[in-house]
Predict the structure.
Amino acid sequence: MNDQTSANLALSDPQADPASSLLADRGHACVVGLQFGDEGKGQVVDALTGHFDLVVRFNGGNNAGHSVRIGNQKFALHLIPSGVLNPRAINVIGNGVVIDPEGLVGEIDALRARGVAVGENLRISDRAHVVMPYHKLQDRLMELALGRLHGQTAQIGTTGRGIGPCYADKAQRTTAIRMHELVDERALRRRLDTAVEVKNVMLAALAGYVGEPFEPIDADALFEQYHELARRLAPHVCDTMELLASARLEGQRILFEGANAALLDIDHGTFPFVTSSNTTSLGIYPGAAVPGGTVSEVLGVVKCYTSRVGGGPSATQIDDELTADRLRQVGNEFGTTTGRPRRIGWLDLMAVRYAAKLNGCTGIVCTGLSVLAGLPRLKVGVGYRVDGRELRHFPADAGLLERIEPIYETVEGFEGPIDQCRRYEDLPQAARTYVEAIEGFTGVAVRAVCVGPGRDQIVPRPRASSAN
Ligand code: IMP
């Protein structure tokens, strides 16, 4: 990276460094989403990376899309941790991540073309699993099969990145390929031969079922293509457990970057309309291979309204298309990965409180507040009612969630624009009341409010006025 770009990307301006207000201690930290993804985690991670030596991804794959805006430059990262934009940080893709080699090489090349250094600062776990083209095909055919069986509402609405089938192969074991095998010519050949044999039988049957043409996969051609991609990735592949263990011993600070979000968690989300990994802080330990209790600071990112892309319930979805569309346009609510329009809802505090508890959040960062500016009244979901009965907790059953009648409180809106506000006290009183309701309901301190996507648009919440 040239010096100019490096200087642009470095956290040199203390005004643009909100980390002191975001972090309560000097331990290892994580940033996770508390809704359905797209809360703006990338901005928060980027703001924090200057205070950490390593930034680690522990779950998901290139289904995630983290947008980071620096000055007038916008970076969309999918697999590479957001720390790559900080010249000092080592970026680790942990064993719990599933890696699409073609996507990752493309991301590395795109970053380098824009002057961002990607070399020894990127380390990839030798135990991470590899997403192959047949996983993407399987993903697509499974969605078509579900649609054929039960109609569109049964479809998960996946990103089509092969994430679910890759994690399924991880559990299946014999058809899986890990990074250490990808970069070992003989192991790759052996593993591919088995996997392709099985996939050809399985995918032909699935394709036949949904009436799609199917060309059997050619193991030789796939081997040639992936052997070449492996050559590009090999210098980055290592034992990241050892790397992180040494870093901890040496007193280096680690930031764990969650992908997707709590309500998409495979175990705790709105199953089956979820992704295929543990997206909460609970996933850090198996997904990055660090001992339980490593992380002392869990920052949950909450967007001040709800968005969801793909299938599945969203209890507080806005029926009034005019309001929903306004928020979608102002908030640019279109998928970073797929470009799909997101479904828009009011803030759902039942879901946020559940997610904060699940993650063990120590602090909250609010995003998207400016999107709400100008609406005369705002609705906030504060409870769930089903069949005349009020639920005390977020339910396990997605079917039940579909039938929920949200209990709303209507609060006063506020006028914008607020994107120039740099001190919490400068925000309109109604906006502060709105943000503080999140703190009141979850019992977790709001540490900062983002009033726009820029590095300098993270407004710290003065400690004295926060809950803990
Ligand atoms: P998959 O992860 O591609 O299997 O998709 C499963 C579900 O999670 C779909 O509804 C996706 O739209 C959703 N999803 C996965 N990753 C993200 C994300 O980063 N943001 C928002 N939605 C996501």
Observations:
- Residues 1-14 have pLDDT under 50 and may be disordered.
- The first strand starts at residue 28 and ends at 33.
- The pocket of inosinic acid is lined by residues 36-38, 63-65, 156-159, 161, 163-164, 260, 264, 273, 275-276, 309-311 (CB under 6 Å).
